[in-house]
Protein backbone atom coordinates (compact mmCIF):
# COMPACT_ATOMS: atom_id res chain seq x y z
CA UNK A 1 0.00 0.00 0.00
CA UNK A 2 2.84 2.37 0.87
CA UNK A 3 4.42 1.66 -2.51
CA UNK A 4 1.13 2.47 -4.25
CA UNK A 5 0.87 5.77 -2.39
CA UNK A 6 4.44 6.64 -3.33
CA UNK A 7 3.76 5.96 -7.02
CA UNK A 8 0.58 8.04 -6.91
CA UNK A 9 2.43 10.93 -5.31
CA UNK A 10 5.12 10.83 -8.00
CA UNK A 11 2.49 10.85 -10.76
CA UNK A 12 0.68 13.84 -9.21
CA UNK A 13 3.92 15.78 -8.82
CA UNK A 14 4.77 15.09 -12.45
CA UNK A 15 1.49 16.52 -13.65
CA UNK A 16 1.58 19.47 -11.24
CA UNK A 17 5.11 20.60 -12.13
CA UNK A 18 4.09 22.59 -15.24
CA UNK A 19 1.34 24.33 -13.26
CA UNK A 20 3.81 25.37 -10.57
CA UNK A 21 6.16 26.64 -13.26
CA UNK A 22 3.38 28.67 -14.89
CA UNK A 23 2.34 30.04 -11.51
CA UNK A 24 5.90 31.08 -10.83
CA UNK A 25 6.22 32.73 -14.23
CA UNK A 26 2.88 34.47 -13.75
CA UNK A 27 4.06 35.81 -10.41
CA UNK A 28 7.17 37.19 -12.01
CA UNK A 29 5.15 38.57 -14.94
CA UNK A 30 2.46 40.04 -12.72
CA UNK A 31 1.45 43.64 -13.47
CA UNK A 32 -0.29 45.65 -16.17
CA UNK A 33 1.23 45.51 -19.62
CA UNK A 34 1.77 48.83 -21.32
CA UNK A 35 2.15 47.73 -24.92
CA UNK A 36 1.98 44.71 -27.23
CA UNK A 37 5.54 43.77 -26.24
CA UNK A 38 4.07 42.95 -22.82
CA UNK A 39 6.50 44.98 -20.76
CA UNK A 40 5.13 44.70 -17.23
CA UNK A 41 5.10 47.25 -14.45
CA UNK A 42 5.54 46.34 -10.84
CA UNK A 43 2.12 47.41 -9.58
CA UNK A 44 -0.92 49.57 -10.28
CA UNK A 45 0.57 52.63 -8.60
CA UNK A 46 3.50 52.58 -11.02
CA UNK A 47 1.03 52.33 -13.91
CA UNK A 48 -0.92 55.34 -12.64
CA UNK A 49 2.32 57.30 -12.29
CA UNK A 50 3.31 56.46 -15.86
CA UNK A 51 -0.14 57.45 -17.13
CA UNK A 52 0.00 60.72 -15.23
CA UNK A 53 3.44 61.61 -16.56
CA UNK A 54 2.56 60.65 -20.14
CA UNK A 55 5.46 58.21 -20.49
CA UNK A 56 3.60 55.59 -22.50
CA UNK A 57 5.39 54.50 -25.70
CA UNK A 58 2.48 55.35 -28.03
CA UNK A 59 0.21 57.10 -25.56
CA UNK A 60 -2.19 54.19 -25.34
CA UNK A 61 -2.97 51.27 -23.08
CA UNK A 62 -4.34 48.41 -25.13
CA UNK A 63 -5.28 44.78 -24.61
CA UNK A 64 -6.35 41.84 -26.77
CA UNK A 65 -9.88 41.11 -27.96
CA UNK A 66 -11.29 38.26 -30.01
CA UNK A 67 -14.17 40.19 -31.60
CA UNK A 68 -14.20 42.19 -34.87
CA UNK A 69 -14.43 45.54 -33.08
CA UNK A 70 -10.76 46.39 -32.51
CA UNK A 71 -11.69 49.61 -30.65
CA UNK A 72 -12.76 47.47 -27.71
CA UNK A 73 -9.10 46.63 -27.09
CA UNK A 74 -8.23 50.26 -26.30
CA UNK A 75 -8.35 50.79 -22.54
CA UNK A 76 -6.84 54.27 -22.29
CA UNK A 77 -5.88 56.73 -25.03
CA UNK A 78 -4.59 60.33 -24.97
CA UNK A 79 -7.67 61.63 -26.81
CA UNK A 80 -9.88 60.13 -24.13
CA UNK A 81 -7.98 61.85 -21.35
CA UNK A 82 -8.07 65.18 -23.24
CA UNK A 83 -11.80 64.80 -23.88
CA UNK A 84 -12.46 64.00 -20.23
CA UNK A 85 -10.61 67.15 -19.13
CA UNK A 86 -12.46 69.26 -21.70
CA UNK A 87 -15.87 67.87 -20.78
CA UNK A 88 -15.36 68.16 -17.03
CA UNK A 89 -13.47 71.48 -16.90
CA UNK A 90 -12.91 73.17 -20.27
CA UNK A 91 -16.52 73.12 -21.46
CA UNK A 92 -17.75 74.63 -18.21
CA UNK A 93 -15.24 77.46 -18.42
CA UNK A 94 -16.15 78.25 -22.03
CA UNK A 95 -19.87 78.39 -21.25
CA UNK A 96 -19.35 80.44 -18.09
CA UNK A 97 -17.00 82.98 -19.71
CA UNK A 98 -19.18 83.56 -22.78
CA UNK A 99 -22.32 83.83 -20.66
CA UNK A 100 -20.74 86.36 -18.30
CA UNK A 101 -19.33 88.39 -21.20
CA UNK A 102 -22.77 88.54 -22.85
CA UNK A 103 -24.47 89.58 -19.61
CA UNK A 104 -21.76 92.18 -18.94
CA UNK A 105 -22.14 93.64 -22.45
CA UNK A 106 -25.93 93.86 -22.06
CA UNK A 107 -25.59 95.47 -18.63
CA UNK A 108 -23.07 98.01 -19.96
CA UNK A 109 -25.39 98.95 -22.85
CA UNK A 110 -28.33 99.31 -20.47
CA UNK A 111 -26.60 101.45 -17.85
CA UNK A 112 -24.44 103.61 -20.13
CA UNK A 113 -26.63 103.85 -23.23
CA UNK A 114 -30.13 102.96 -22.10
CA UNK A 115 -32.93 101.90 -24.38
CA UNK A 116 -33.19 103.68 -27.73
CA UNK A 117 -36.44 105.62 -27.89
CA UNK A 118 -38.38 107.10 -30.80
CA UNK A 119 -41.17 109.58 -31.46
CA UNK A 120 -44.44 107.85 -32.23
CA UNK A 121 -46.24 108.67 -35.44
CA UNK A 122 -48.73 111.47 -34.61
CA UNK A 123 -51.42 109.80 -36.73
CA UNK A 124 -50.83 106.37 -35.21
CA UNK A 125 -49.86 104.86 -38.55
CA UNK A 126 -48.13 101.46 -38.61
CA UNK A 127 -46.34 99.51 -41.28
CA UNK A 128 -46.32 95.74 -41.82
CA UNK A 129 -42.92 94.18 -41.08
CA UNK A 130 -43.40 90.41 -40.71
CA UNK A 131 -46.05 87.98 -41.84
CA UNK A 132 -47.69 85.50 -39.48
CA UNK A 133 -45.64 82.62 -40.87
CA UNK A 134 -42.44 84.61 -40.30
CA UNK A 135 -43.36 85.26 -36.69
CA UNK A 136 -44.33 81.62 -36.15
CA UNK A 137 -40.97 80.44 -37.48
CA UNK A 138 -39.13 82.96 -35.33
CA UNK A 139 -40.89 81.95 -32.11
CA UNK A 140 -40.63 78.26 -32.96
CA UNK A 141 -36.89 78.68 -33.28
CA UNK A 142 -36.60 80.92 -30.21
CA UNK A 143 -38.64 78.74 -27.84
CA UNK A 144 -37.03 75.51 -29.00
CA UNK A 145 -33.56 77.07 -28.64
CA UNK A 146 -34.27 78.13 -25.05
CA UNK A 147 -35.45 74.61 -24.18
CA UNK A 148 -32.43 73.10 -25.91
CA UNK A 149 -30.13 75.47 -24.03
CA UNK A 150 -31.65 74.60 -20.65
CA UNK A 151 -31.55 70.84 -21.20
CA UNK A 152 -28.07 71.07 -22.72
CA UNK A 153 -26.66 73.21 -19.92
CA UNK A 154 -27.84 70.56 -17.48
CA UNK A 155 -25.21 68.24 -18.92
CA UNK A 156 -22.55 70.93 -18.49
CA UNK A 157 -23.35 72.29 -15.03
CA UNK A 158 -25.95 69.84 -13.70
CA UNK A 159 -23.64 67.70 -11.59
CA UNK A 160 -22.21 70.80 -9.93
CA UNK A 161 -25.27 73.04 -9.56
CA UNK A 162 -28.38 70.82 -9.72
CA UNK A 163 -27.49 67.38 -8.39
CA UNK A 164 -26.48 68.60 -4.89
CA UNK A 165 -29.85 70.38 -4.60
CA UNK A 166 -32.26 67.69 -5.85
CA UNK A 167 -30.36 64.50 -5.03
CA UNK A 168 -29.03 61.66 -7.17
CA UNK A 169 -32.33 59.95 -8.02
CA UNK A 170 -34.18 63.13 -9.04
CA UNK A 171 -31.19 64.38 -11.01
CA UNK A 172 -30.90 61.07 -12.86
CA UNK A 173 -34.58 61.12 -13.83
CA UNK A 174 -34.44 64.77 -14.82
CA UNK A 175 -31.33 64.25 -16.94
CA UNK A 176 -32.83 61.24 -18.72
CA UNK A 177 -36.02 63.05 -19.74
CA UNK A 178 -33.99 66.14 -20.49
CA UNK A 179 -31.94 64.14 -22.99
CA UNK A 180 -35.06 62.64 -24.59
CA UNK A 181 -36.75 66.04 -24.96
CA UNK A 182 -33.48 67.61 -26.17
CA UNK A 183 -33.31 65.16 -29.06
CA UNK A 184 -36.92 65.68 -30.14
CA UNK A 185 -37.02 69.47 -29.66
CA UNK A 186 -33.93 69.71 -31.84
CA UNK A 187 -35.99 68.86 -34.92
CA UNK A 188 -38.37 71.79 -34.25
CA UNK A 189 -35.32 74.06 -34.03
CA UNK A 190 -34.02 72.73 -37.34
CA UNK A 191 -37.35 73.44 -39.06
CA UNK A 192 -37.32 77.03 -37.80
CA UNK A 193 -33.74 77.60 -38.90
CA UNK A 194 -34.45 76.15 -42.35
CA UNK A 195 -37.42 78.46 -42.89
CA UNK A 196 -35.65 81.62 -41.71
CA UNK A 197 -32.60 80.80 -43.80
CA UNK A 198 -34.66 80.62 -46.99
CA UNK A 199 -37.26 83.32 -46.26
CA UNK A 200 -34.94 86.04 -44.93
CA UNK A 201 -31.77 85.49 -46.91
CA UNK A 202 -32.61 88.04 -49.62
CA UNK A 203 -32.84 90.82 -47.01
CA UNK A 204 -29.63 89.89 -45.18
CA UNK A 205 -26.93 90.28 -47.83
CA UNK A 206 -24.35 92.89 -46.81
CA UNK A 207 -24.02 96.08 -48.85
CA UNK A 208 -22.36 99.50 -48.77
CA UNK A 209 -24.87 100.92 -46.30
CA UNK A 210 -23.90 98.15 -43.89
CA UNK A 211 -20.25 99.13 -44.06
CA UNK A 212 -21.15 102.66 -43.00
CA UNK A 213 -23.43 101.33 -40.29
CA UNK A 214 -20.60 99.21 -38.89
CA UNK A 215 -18.12 102.11 -39.01
CA UNK A 216 -20.43 104.18 -36.85
CA UNK A 217 -21.42 101.21 -34.65
CA UNK A 218 -25.06 101.88 -35.42
CA UNK A 219 -24.99 105.09 -33.43
CA UNK A 220 -24.96 103.16 -30.16
CA UNK A 221 -21.99 105.13 -28.82
CA UNK A 222 -23.10 108.59 -29.87
CA UNK A 223 -24.05 110.33 -33.08
CA UNK A 224 -26.99 109.81 -35.37
CA UNK A 225 -28.03 106.29 -36.28
CA UNK A 226 -26.92 105.45 -39.84
CA UNK A 227 -29.67 104.59 -42.36
CA UNK A 228 -30.43 100.90 -42.85
CA UNK A 229 -32.46 98.58 -45.01
CA UNK A 230 -35.03 96.14 -43.58
CA UNK A 231 -32.25 94.73 -41.41
CA UNK A 232 -29.26 96.74 -40.26
CA UNK A 233 -25.71 95.38 -40.27
CA UNK A 234 -25.94 94.19 -36.67
CA UNK A 235 -29.13 92.25 -37.37
CA UNK A 236 -27.60 90.76 -40.50
CA UNK A 237 -24.58 89.64 -38.50
CA UNK A 238 -26.86 87.94 -35.96
CA UNK A 239 -28.77 86.31 -38.82
CA UNK A 240 -25.65 84.76 -40.37
CA UNK A 241 -24.29 83.67 -36.99
CA UNK A 242 -27.66 82.03 -36.27
CA UNK A 243 -27.74 80.32 -39.67
CA UNK A 244 -24.23 78.89 -39.58
CA UNK A 245 -24.34 78.21 -35.85
CA UNK A 246 -27.79 76.66 -36.11
CA UNK A 247 -26.77 74.31 -38.89
CA UNK A 248 -23.56 73.56 -36.99
CA UNK A 249 -25.31 72.36 -33.85
CA UNK A 250 -27.97 70.62 -35.97
CA UNK A 251 -25.43 68.57 -37.92
CA UNK A 252 -23.29 67.74 -34.89
CA UNK A 253 -26.40 66.92 -32.87
CA UNK A 254 -27.68 64.49 -35.50
CA UNK A 255 -24.23 62.88 -35.74
CA UNK A 256 -24.22 62.39 -31.97
CA UNK A 257 -27.53 60.49 -32.27
CA UNK A 258 -26.07 57.99 -34.76
CA UNK A 259 -24.18 54.81 -33.93
CA UNK A 260 -20.67 55.41 -32.67
CA UNK A 261 -19.37 52.96 -35.29
CA UNK A 262 -20.11 55.60 -37.96
CA UNK A 263 -17.75 58.20 -36.54
CA UNK A 264 -15.51 56.21 -34.26
CA UNK A 265 -14.48 57.33 -30.80
CA UNK A 266 -12.43 60.30 -31.99
CA UNK A 267 -15.10 61.44 -34.44
CA UNK A 268 -17.78 61.31 -31.76
CA UNK A 269 -15.60 63.32 -29.39
CA UNK A 270 -15.04 65.98 -32.07
CA UNK A 271 -18.79 66.15 -32.77
CA UNK A 272 -19.61 66.56 -29.09
CA UNK A 273 -16.89 69.18 -28.60
CA UNK A 274 -18.04 71.20 -31.61
CA UNK A 275 -21.67 70.90 -30.50
CA UNK A 276 -21.06 72.33 -27.05
CA UNK A 277 -18.73 75.12 -28.26
CA UNK A 278 -21.15 76.30 -30.97
CA UNK A 279 -24.02 76.16 -28.49
CA UNK A 280 -22.08 78.28 -25.99
CA UNK A 281 -21.46 80.92 -28.66
CA UNK A 282 -25.10 80.94 -29.78
CA UNK A 283 -26.34 81.33 -26.20
CA UNK A 284 -24.19 84.45 -25.82
CA UNK A 285 -25.45 85.87 -29.13
CA UNK A 286 -29.09 85.16 -28.28
CA UNK A 287 -28.74 86.99 -24.95
CA UNK A 288 -27.64 90.12 -26.83
CA UNK A 289 -30.30 89.67 -29.49
CA UNK A 290 -33.06 89.29 -26.89
CA UNK A 291 -31.99 92.50 -25.15
CA UNK A 292 -31.74 94.60 -28.31
CA UNK A 293 -35.03 93.22 -29.63
CA UNK A 294 -36.93 94.26 -26.52
CA UNK A 295 -35.53 96.75 -23.98
CA UNK A 296 -32.47 97.90 -25.92
CA UNK A 297 -34.42 99.27 -28.90
CA UNK A 298 -37.90 100.24 -27.79
CA UNK A 299 -40.64 99.33 -30.24
CA UNK A 300 -38.71 96.42 -31.76
CA UNK A 301 -40.70 93.76 -29.94
CA UNK A 302 -43.86 94.77 -31.82
CA UNK A 303 -42.35 93.46 -35.04
CA UNK A 304 -42.36 89.86 -33.79
CA UNK A 305 -45.35 90.09 -31.46
CA UNK A 306 -47.81 92.02 -33.65
CA UNK A 307 -46.20 91.83 -37.09
CA UNK A 308 -46.29 95.61 -37.65
CA UNK A 309 -44.39 98.57 -36.19
CA UNK A 310 -44.93 102.25 -35.71
CA UNK A 311 -44.18 104.16 -38.90
CA UNK A 312 -41.85 106.60 -37.13
CA UNK A 313 -40.00 103.70 -35.52
CA UNK A 314 -39.42 102.26 -38.97
CA UNK A 315 -38.28 105.64 -40.34
CA UNK A 316 -35.91 106.06 -37.40
CA UNK A 317 -34.18 102.68 -37.67
CA UNK A 318 -34.84 101.44 -41.23
CA UNK A 319 -35.51 104.48 -43.44
CA UNK A 320 -34.26 102.87 -46.68
CA UNK A 321 -36.66 99.97 -46.25
CA UNK A 322 -39.57 102.35 -45.52
CA UNK A 323 -38.84 104.25 -48.72
CA UNK A 324 -39.08 101.08 -50.76
CA UNK A 325 -42.31 100.04 -49.05
CA UNK A 326 -43.98 103.42 -49.54
CA UNK A 327 -42.88 103.59 -53.15
CA UNK A 328 -44.47 100.20 -53.81
CA UNK A 329 -41.17 98.46 -54.61
CA UNK A 330 -41.42 96.05 -51.69
CA UNK A 331 -43.59 92.96 -52.20
CA UNK A 332 -44.66 90.19 -49.92
CA UNK A 333 -43.15 86.89 -50.98
CA UNK A 334 -46.04 84.74 -52.17
CA UNK A 335 -48.58 87.52 -51.50
CA UNK A 336 -49.89 90.84 -52.81
CA UNK A 337 -47.89 94.05 -53.01
CA UNK A 338 -47.76 96.04 -49.80
CA UNK A 339 -49.95 99.11 -49.60
CA UNK A 340 -47.83 102.22 -50.30
CA UNK A 341 -49.86 104.17 -47.73
CA UNK A 342 -49.78 102.73 -44.21
CA UNK A 343 -53.16 102.77 -42.53
CA UNK A 344 -53.74 104.33 -39.11
CA UNK A 345 -53.88 101.81 -36.30
CA UNK A 346 -57.32 101.10 -34.90
Secondary structure layout:
Blueprint: H1 2-28, H2 44-53, E1 61-62, E2 74-76, H3 78-112, E3 126-128, H4 132-166, H5 168-200, H6 208-215, H7 233-257, H8 260-296, H9 301-305, E4 308-310, H10 311-317, H11 319-326
Antiparallel strand pairs: 1-2, 3-4
Helix pairs in contact: 3-8, 4-5, 5-7, 7-8, 10-11
List keywords for this structure.
mainly alpha; 3% strand; disordered C terminus; 346 residues; two-stranded antiparallel ribbon; 4 strands
Would you write up a description of this structure?
This protein is mainly alpha-helical. The protein has helices spanning about 1-30, 45-55, 80-110, 130-165, 170-200, 210-215, 235-255, 260-295, 300-305, 310-315, 320-325, and strands at about 60, 75, 125-130, 310. Helix 3 (about 80-110) packs parallel to helix 8 and helix 4 (about 130-165) runs antiparallel to helix 5. It is elongated. The model is unreliable at about 20-40 and about 330-345 (pLDDT under 50).
Quaternary structure annotation: single chain
Note the gap between the termini.
121 Å
The chain-level mean pLDDT equals 81
Q: Give the number of DSSP strands.
A: 4
User: Residue ranges: pLDDT <50 for 5 or more in a row?
Assistant: 19-38, 331-346
What is the compact description of this entry?
The protein has eleven helices and four strands. The protein is mostly helical and 346 residues long.
Amino acid sequence: MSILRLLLTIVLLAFAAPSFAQSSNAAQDRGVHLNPQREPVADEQQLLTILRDGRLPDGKVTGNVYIPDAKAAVLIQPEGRFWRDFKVTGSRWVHAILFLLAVAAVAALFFFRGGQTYERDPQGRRIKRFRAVDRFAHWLTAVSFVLLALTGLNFVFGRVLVQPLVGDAAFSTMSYWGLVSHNFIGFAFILGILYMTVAWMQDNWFGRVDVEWMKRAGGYFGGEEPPAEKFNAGQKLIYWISVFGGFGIAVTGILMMTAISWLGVTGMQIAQGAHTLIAAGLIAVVIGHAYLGSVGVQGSFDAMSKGDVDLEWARTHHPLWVERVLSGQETLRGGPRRSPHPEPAE
